[in-house]
Amino acid sequence: MSATFDPDHLRAGLRPLAQWQPLSEEAKAYQRFYRTDFPERDVWRGMGRFEVDGYELVSHCWWPETAKGTLFLLHGFYDHTGLYRHVIAWALDQGFAVIACDLPGHGLSSGERASIRDFSEYQDALHGLFAEARSIALPQPWHLCGQSTGAAIVVDHLLDQSVESPAQGQVILLAPLVRPRAWGWSQLSYYLLRPFVRGIARRFSENTNDPAFLPFLQADPLQPKRLPTKWVGALSRWIERIEYAKKSPRRPLIVQGQADMTVDWPHNLQVLKWKFDRPQILMLPQARHHLANEVAEMREEYFEFLSKRIKGRNPQ
Do 154 and 171 form a contact (C-beta atoms < 8 A)? Predict the structure, then answer.
């Protein structure tokens, strides 16, 4: 199935979610391509556009009529919301509305592909998404869920605004990024390359056990093809800041694959245990990095873990 949408044209035709714009034929084609239209479900499906730090960000929303809360979903680096249909479907099964946005430089949003000036811009994007959710009165409580870099954004937000956060529901971190794997070597490469190149070619790797996922990524029209050195520099500054941040009283749910070759998960889990109050951690021995697109049996295992803890529990 080939894509029948143009990202820039699709984005240009969007308005803020509060204007309750019906989906265009191009937006419907986008949702069909990534199978996020969920035609069998009785949900309102919306797409919108809002501005943050000079970026035009595209928001996505799925809202059942009887929703009992809202899940804010933040995707990982190189990703976009269209890759998260399994997580969205699980959240809808739990009775939640779901709202997400493509981060700057990702998916349908504007910006240099996969780049960022500073990680603070990700925080601005999250706060912009909160504003979009307020504008349409998405139901409380608000829960947070992030994969990899999306989890890093959630961690950053909570370490800075635990008590003041508008999202006082549960917190879900999937394969959270604090440091990437082999970070020392990555830093050395960054400082050696920075004066000479703006980016290096991306290497696609097998980051799930699903043999169909890598070919889909390689054919995905919204996948960035380069790793900008600017993003690595922004990550370096963020890591230093986050590892010295004050602790948070929140108690997140963390899911981590032990076959993850993308992040330095032993180090990351130690940091998160120190920063948060007794996080509940599920380890999946065979799971790789992209948990949102792992094989069905692994998704079922961690969705069961999350479902038991997100219903009727005090998130604190």
Answer: yes
Three-state DSSP class for residue 42 = coil
Of 311, 205, 186, 198, the C-alpha closest to 253 is: 311
> Alpha-carbon torsion 120, 292, 62, 57, what sign?
positive
At position 61, the amino acid (one-letter code) is: C
Write out the E strands in the chain. Answer: 43-52, 55-64, 70-74, 97-101, 142-147, 171-174, 199-201, 226-228, 253-257, 280-284
- State both tokens at 235: 């990550």
- 55: three-class secondary structure by DSSP: strand
List the helix and strand counts (H, then E) for the chain.
10, 10
Give the pairing of strands 97-101 and 171-174: unpaired
* Span 63-115, pLDDT tens digits: 999 999 999 999 999 999 999 999 999 999 999 999 999 999 999 999 999 99
The pLDDT tens digits for 180-239 are 997 764 554 545 455 544 567 778 889 999 999 999 999 999 999 998 888 988 998 999
CB under 8 A, 24+ apart: contacts of 207-215: 207/261, 207/262, 207/288, 207/289, 207/290, 208/288, 208/289, 208/290, 208/291, 208/293, 208/294, 208/295, 209/286, 209/287, 209/288, 209/294, 209/295, 209/298, 210/293, 210/294, 210/295, 213/290, 213/293
DSSP 22: P
Tokens describing residue 47:
């797409």
Look up residue 74 and give its two tokens. 């933040």
CA distances 162 to 110, 171, 244, 246, 294, Å, are 29, 11, 16, 10, 30
In whole angstroms, give the CA distance from residue 247 to residue 58: 32
Helix (H, G, I), strand (E, B) or coil at 93: helix
Radius of gyration of the chain (CA): 18
Cα 177 to Cα 164: distance, rounded to the nearest angstrom: 23
Instruction: Answer for the pair 282, 252: CB distance below 8 angstroms, yes or no.
Output: no
